[in-house]
Specification:
Mean pLDDT: 84
CATH architecture: Beta Barrel
Low-confidence stretches: none
CATH superfamily: Nucleic acid-binding proteins
Helix content: 10-25%
Largest sheet: 8 strands, mixed
Structural class: alpha+beta
Number of helices: 2
Strand content: 35-45%
Order of helices and strands: EEEEHEEEEH
CATH topology: OB fold (Dihydrolipoamide Acetyltransferase, E2P)
């Protein structure tokens, strides 16, 4: 049985691929975290290429965008091609038969707000630099 299931964030906006003059399929990539950590705090990720057609392509085109959390299910397809330099390039692509949203609208808005806040620069602390009063000026001050 060939069935891949994974969840992650869409790494770039989906791209419509054309075959001649009509849309053929939608392609997108999701960033999937691995279960193990390399060292404290670091977690490796894989970038999984996905394609979809028909109803799923319409969903992907309308609702998927960079950063959207999704779950994808479908067979894993392998292939290869030869690049311009003559090297054989091997590919792995998931044919997305099922696409589900991995967060509610409220969770998505909360995550986006946190991401926006983390990208904003922190306000500078107030400048409490006071001038030192020179020695011997006490007699010249009106309130002494």
């Amino acid at each position: 049985m060939n069935k891949w299931i994974g969840s992650g964030k869409v790494s770039e906006d989906p791209i419509i691929k054309y075959d001649g003059d009509k849309a053929s399929f939608i392609a997108f990539t999701i960033m999937v975290k691995r279960n193990r950590r390399i060292k404290e705090g670091d977690q490796p990720v894989d970038f999984i290429d996905c394609i979809c057609t028909g109803h799923n392509a319409r969903i992907a085109e309308a609702y998927l965008y960079k950063g959207k959390k999704v779950e994808v299910c479908g067979p894993l397809q392998s292939g290869h091609y030869t690049n311009k330099e003559g090297r054989k390039i091997y590919t792995k692509t998931v044919y997305a038969e099922e696409i589900s949203f991995a967060e509610t609208k409220a969770e998505e808005e909360e995550r986006q707000e946190k991401e926006r806040r983390s990208q904003e620069p922190e306000p500078a602390p107030p400048d409490y630099n006071f001038m030192d009063i020179p020695d011997g000026i006490d007699g010249e001050l009106p309130f002494c």
